[in-house]
Specification:
The model is unreliable at 1-22 (pLDDT under 50). The radius of gyration is 19 Å and the shape is globular. It has two domains: 4-22 and 171-354, Roll (2,3-Dihydroxybiphenyl 1,2-Dioxygenase, domain 1); 39-154, 2,3-Dihydroxybiphenyl 1,2-Dioxygenase, domain 1 (Roll). By secondary structure, it is an alpha/beta fold. It has helices spanning 3-13, 52-62, 108-120, 188-197, 247-259, 327-331, and strands spanning 39-49, 66-70, 74-78, 88-92, 97-105, 125-128, 140-144, 150-154, 177-185, 201-207, 213-219, 227-231, 236-243, 266-272, 279-284, 290-295, 308-311. The strands form two sheets. A nine-stranded mixed beta sheet has the order 14-15-16-13-9-12-11-10-17. A hairpin with a 3-residue loop joins strand 2 (66-70) and strand 3 (74-78). It binds 3,3-dihydroxy-4-oxocyclohexa-1,5-diene-1-sulfonic acid and fe (ii) ion. Residues 180, 182, 228, 239, 241, 292, 294 line the site of fe (ii) ion.
Amino acid sequence: MTDRTDRTDRTDRTNRADGTDRADRSDPAGRELPPPPDVVRSGYAQLVVTDLARSRWFWADVLGLHVQYEDDDCLCLRGTDELTHHSLVLRAGEAAALDHLAYRVRTEADVDRAQAFFTALGRPVRRVPKGEGTRGVGDAVRVLDPLGFPVEFFHGIEPAERLIQRYDLRRGAEIARLDHFNICTPDVPAAYAHYTSLGFGCSETIEGDAHELYAAWMFRKQTVHDVAFTGGAGPRLHHLGVATHESHQVLRTADLLGALREEHHIERGPGRHGVSNAFYLYLRDPDGHRVEIYTSDYYTGDPDHETYRWSVHDDRRRDFWGNAVIESWYKEASPVLDLDGHVQPVGETLLDESAVRVVGADGLG
Ligand code: XXG
Ligand code: FE2
């Protein structure tokens, strides 16, 4: 059995009977859809930033990402464990925004599958031949997905020198790799249904008393997630999650920012998540783009891996020690561009988790 068949089987077994789990292959009008692309993992994100030098300081000096390529308009960055050209591209522009998210797919044929799949869904689709899109990336397809996000599907990407044991080059947070995207969307069940139709499994959820879906964590690689949904006005980018190997690197990042009198970049944490069990710290970059330094989640690759469901009333769900989540974390996020580079309007959320009453360990409601 192929990896993909295993994943689809698992998704079917962990589905729910309450309508949030449409794993079928049909569009909203009930027409059958072509097979989805075989997504390997979250591949890279491209952000628009307003001051490339200041962004370089934050992402390369403080977070320790390796600069793979740079010119006056763009920076291509990768973590110490990554063997491909980049996992983050920063493009200079007038206003900060998400340019696009990108998923790596298994073969070149999966790029064609992505084109056919989103065309059948009636979504805007652009073919981006090698050399015309993001530096280092081969033939790709860019779509505006049903949630309104600009998403690229690519297979080919330039390989990069192995830096895994170049301890001499490490600095700052020593980021190892991109881990996940977190996106704000008004309709979390619709996001869940779309990513289920793309063959993603679901590791964890946050649910209300009647199983209303407040948030979900979904994966293709064998970790807790490649993408998660935060219920909120959207489409907006909530954060990029980048992984370190050890929790001391997360703590060191906070110490470093304090020592540099740059502590205002720290938004939430350090702490231990309930969802995912990861150790975390959220920062805001010079443009306000949010990044999570994240480590030590768990393996999800078994074919019968079950979704773990948190009650929205459990104060440990977002911080296992019960610390309250700062309001800005729920409310603020980056605008998202369409395929022509225009900022997209946002729709208001259906369910507001920040309005659910919580008293954290620090006594804040
Ligand atoms: O990656 C994550 C998160 O989505 O950033 C947030 C894992 C867990 C959480 S949560 O705040 O729900 O614990
Ligand atoms: Fe995250």
